[in-house]
Structure to design on (254 residues):
């Protein structure tokens, strides 16, 4: 980066990084656990994301068989809100940067 | 409002309530699922965990309220749209804590496939596992009968 440009930037570097983090897209990923019932996970997906039965079951089976499923992709703030809600339902949810965007 | 009533066996369920009560205090202070991404921002982690614990504590209180004085008279519990969500979540929290505290010796694959031989378990693991199954049954009942009230609320 050109130092002159950095000096004249209205944002300090940490602020700029925060801005970038907020603008990039993130994945909400649910990880498998051996405790929660399959039927429970389906209900949680329907409740939290408004999925229909088929979509909720598809994601649940992906979690069960592959150990993880990407259930939502979007901006950081709503992604955090979804991860928090999933954790309120005691599913293991993480955020990952979406490399495709 | 849809409401389901379930008659339980008092001699079977009463000892399991002690197991749940024994974990309730822990669940009032620590989340059932530790954040897998903890550590990046300590202040944020603390706030996040605090909110999770507050909601978890309230859910577990709703579950325990099913088994108040009245339960020891008629052995009946009631589920309806006002308590279904909280109880389903509380069952999940207690089951996760049961696994962590008492069922670590059981392989994940056996637990997930439901292939645990209860007769081969020794106390207190056996009692903890019975409690684990009991809570799954409650969750199943709620999902079978009140799924729409949870999803639609």
């Amino acid at each position: 980066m050109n130092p002159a440009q950095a000096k004249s930037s209205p944002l300090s570097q940490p602020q700029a990084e925060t801005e970038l983090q907020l603008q990039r897209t993130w994945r909400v990923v649910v990880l498998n656990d051996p405790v929660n019932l399959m039927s429970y996970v389906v209900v949680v997906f329907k409740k939290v994301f408004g999925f229909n039965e088929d979509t909720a079951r598809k994601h649940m089976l992906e979690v069960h068989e592959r150990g993880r499923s990407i259930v939502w992709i979007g901006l950081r703030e709503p992604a955090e809100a979804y991860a928090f809600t999933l954790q309120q339902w005691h599913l293991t949810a993480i955020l990952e940067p979406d490399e495709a965007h | 409002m849809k409401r389901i009533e379930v008659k339980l066996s008092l001699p079977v369920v009463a000892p399991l309530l002690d197991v749940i009560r024994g974990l309730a205090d822990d669940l009032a202070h620590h989340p059932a699922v530790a954040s897998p991404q903890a550590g990046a921002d300590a202040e944020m982690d603390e706030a996040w965990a605090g909110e999770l614990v507050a909601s978890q504590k309230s859910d577990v209180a709703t579950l325990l309220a099913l088994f108040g004085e009245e339960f020891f008279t008629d052995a009946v519990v009631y589920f309806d749209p006002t308590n279904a969500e909280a109880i389903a979540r509380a069952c999940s929290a207690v089951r996760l804590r049961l696994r962590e505290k008492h069922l670590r010796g059981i392989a994940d694959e056996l637990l997930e496939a439901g292939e645990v031989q209860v007769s081969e378990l020794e106390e207190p693991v056996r009692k903890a596992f019975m409690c684990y199954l009991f809570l799954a049954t409650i969750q199943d009942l709620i999902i079978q009968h009140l799924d729409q009230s949870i999803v639609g609320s």
The longest strand of chain B covers residues 4-7.
